[in-house]
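hiii so um. not sure if this is the right channel but i have a protein structure encoded as tokens and i wanna go backwards to a sequence. like what aa goes where. can anyone help
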């Protein structure tokens, strides 16, 4: 039976992509249904209980700037916060929060349950309803049919999921959850390119069975970083430490002696695993000369007694996992509460997606998250937001929107995926972005909140906070520009102590702030003032003043490239007719079918000279 209720957007899957997708659709005011296998697992972290990190923290801030839930939930659930790369430049600084699994999930569920226009329903989806080659709804496991204008699929590692522990294998979406077999079969029958990937997770350990006394303690940073632009330090729960131990030669011997029982090395697993988050057996084989690997013992929460040993993800048999764990310092008497495992699953070639994450083969159907070949909660959440936003925009009859590479890491993520596809689980790094100085964590709100407001996904509260902050930044900027220091009016001895030299000519506070060694506190000291603006306002003034020259240069470069970036390549372009292209470049372009010159320019092996030839061709034929 088809329900009378017609939804604008149906989101399938309540993981990290699904929750952001459902929220981004509903925030626009469209009627949205989130269908998921189990309401209890909304926002569940399948693997390590942590949000953010290098590149990933940038994504979380961008999701937040566009009104998403991930950063706020991390603030409510975070039990150890750090700023990574704190001593480096602002472009690569990144926030990371160790999260209490239960609190994080509860925060996500709270946001979902209180979002107007969003309806939750617990059912697995088995099939799609297709009318006139367009998706028109979904059919659940028990035969219920739900109609919708657009459907967003975010079913993570569940499609055809197979769990491996040693040479034993069984179907599963992640430990404790069923795989989506029927839906996987249905999707495999459609003209999408599909392949297999794998990922893994370590065994978990009972906290009381660990001897922390000889281990290195790693407390969070003080003052505690805050994730959301709306977050407040006082919303954080109690903060606790992580600890560090190491693998050793004994651990490595255990692994080497049992490689024949590993599903990866015996050929049982075909899917390619995450290069940057390899299993411990992979690390021992690939880095055979290393005698130790660092393992972070991360608490899973404040009210539970489990620890996540970050760094020993494994699919070796349980008895081997036991020996691995017990070979390490502090873990000699460790009790394992859950075995580690690897999981293989279907993913779809993201080159079959439009940049707004709608599938090219079926209008109205959007894909987001791990099913597009990525790994990580942040990558999933970022795609979910864009897919849900665009599913909603389409349902409202509006134009699609997606960020460019110079606007957001989300733009880099999507452009990388749809242009180059991926052969291994894709994760974000700052090194993937060309315009790192523009795409900082600290200015994600400036880059994206006004756009989100225009698109209808940034609410009043966020907009008011954003506007107030920008006004304060502008006012402080102007104030420092107007604050003059004259040699005859300052205490030159004091100035020499603070600046390393006396003041030789009239200058403004802003000019002084441009000097590499002068910070905001020094400026206040010279002006004889105490601080009157918040830390984040002062930070914006300082970064935008100190890096103004570099930022302007990047802006020029972006503008220059943009003139070509947005030049569209005809869908039916025949590259064999483009004079002067090498066969290799021709094949690459033919295969990747870039939509614009910008996309073409980013394909590996496509040189600036090849782009010039394409421009000439377009002028000649256009
Ligand atoms: P998920 O979080 O998997 O959510 C999918 C959701 O869809 C679930 O709620 C599920 O119940 C629901 N669902 C599935 N099928 C259906 C259906 N037919 N109908 C309705 N609902 C359905 N990431 C890292 O960054 N580092 C790691 O080390 C890492 N290790 C991992 C290890 C394991 C074992 C697993 C399973 C994942 C790991 N990940 C890791 C990946 C991380 O968990 C995912 O990238 C992230 O959760 C993907 O988010 P998602 O929203 O795409 O999917």
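sure thing!! here u go:
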């Amino acid at each position: 039976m088809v329900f009378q209720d017609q939804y604008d957007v149906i989101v399938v899957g309540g993981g990290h992509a699904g929750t952001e997708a459902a929220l981004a659709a509903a925030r626009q005011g469209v009627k949205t249904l989130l269908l998921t296998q189990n309401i209890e697992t909304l926002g569940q972290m399948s693997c390590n209980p942590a949000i953010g990190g290098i590149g990933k923290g940038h994504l979380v801030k961008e999701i937040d700037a566009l009104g998403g839930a991930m950063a706020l939930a991390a603030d409510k659930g975070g039990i150890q916060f750090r700023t990574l790369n704190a001593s480096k430049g602002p472009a690569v600084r990144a926030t990371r929060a160790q999260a209490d699994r239960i609190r994080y999930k509860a925060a996500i569920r709270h946001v979902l349950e209180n979002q107007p226009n969003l309806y939750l329903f617990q059912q697995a989806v088995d099939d799609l309803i297709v009318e006139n080659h367009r998706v028109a709804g979904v059919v659940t496991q028990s035969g219920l049919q739900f109609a919708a204008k657009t459907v967003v699929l975010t079913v993570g590692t569940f499609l055809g999921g197979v769990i491996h522990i040693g040479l034993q294998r069984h179907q599963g979406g992640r430990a404790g959850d069923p795989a989506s077999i029927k839906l996987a079969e249905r999707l495999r029958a459609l003209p999408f390119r599909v392949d297999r990937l794998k990922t893994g997770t370590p065994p978990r350990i009972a906290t009381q069975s660990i001897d922390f006394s000889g281990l290195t303690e790693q407390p969070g940073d003080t003052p505690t970083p805050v994730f959301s632009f709306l977050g407040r330090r006082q919303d954080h729960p109690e903060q606790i430490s992580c600890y560090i131990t190491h693998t050793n030669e004994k651990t490595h011997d255990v692994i080497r002696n049992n490689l024949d029982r590993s599903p990866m090395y015996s050929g049982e697993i075909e899917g390619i695993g995450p290069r940057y988050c390899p299993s411990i057996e992979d690390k021992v084989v690939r880095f055979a000369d290393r005698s130790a690997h660092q393992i972070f013992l991360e608490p899973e929460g404040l009210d539970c007694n489990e620890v996540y040993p970050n760094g020993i993800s494994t699919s070796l048999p349980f008895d081997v996992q036991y020996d691995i764990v017990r070979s390490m310092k502090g873990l000699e008497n460790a009790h394992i509460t859950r075995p580690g495992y690897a999981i293989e699953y279907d993913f779809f070639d993201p080159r079959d997606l439009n940049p707004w994450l709608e599938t090219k083969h079926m209008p109205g159907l959007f894909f987001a998250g791990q099913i597009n070949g990525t790994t990580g909660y942040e990558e999933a959440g970022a795609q979910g937001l864009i897919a849900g936003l665009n599913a909603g925009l389409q349902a409202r009859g509006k134009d699609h929107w997606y960020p460019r590479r110079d606007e957001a890491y989300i733009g880099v993520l999507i452009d990388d995926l749809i242009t180059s596809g991926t052969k291994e689980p894709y994760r974000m790094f700052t090194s993937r972005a060309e315009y790192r100085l523009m795409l900082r964590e600290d200015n994600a709100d400036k880059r994206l909140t006004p756009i989100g407001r225009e698109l209808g996904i940034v609410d009043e509260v966020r907009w008011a906070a954003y506007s107030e902050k920008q006004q304060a930044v502008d006012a402080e900027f102007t104030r420092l520009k107007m604050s003059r220091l004259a040699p005859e009016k300052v205490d030159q001895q004091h100035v020499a102590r603070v600046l390393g030299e006396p003041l030789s000519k009239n200058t403004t506070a802003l000019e002084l702030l441009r000097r590499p060694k002068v910070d905001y506190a020094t400026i206040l000291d010279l002006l004889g003032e105490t601080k009157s603006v918040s830390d984040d306002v002062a930070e914006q003034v300082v970064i935008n003043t100190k890096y103004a020259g570099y930022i302007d240069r990047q802006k020029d470069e972006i503008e220059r490239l943009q003139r070509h970036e947005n030049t569209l390549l005809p869908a039916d372009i025949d590259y064999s007719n483009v004079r002067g292209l090498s066969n290799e470049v021709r094949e690459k372009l033919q295969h990747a079918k870039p939509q614009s010159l910008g996309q073409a320019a980013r394909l590996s092996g496509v040189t600036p000279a090849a782009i010039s030839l394409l421009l000439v061709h377009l002028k000649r034929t256009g």
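oh and Residues 460-482 form the longest helix (23 residues).
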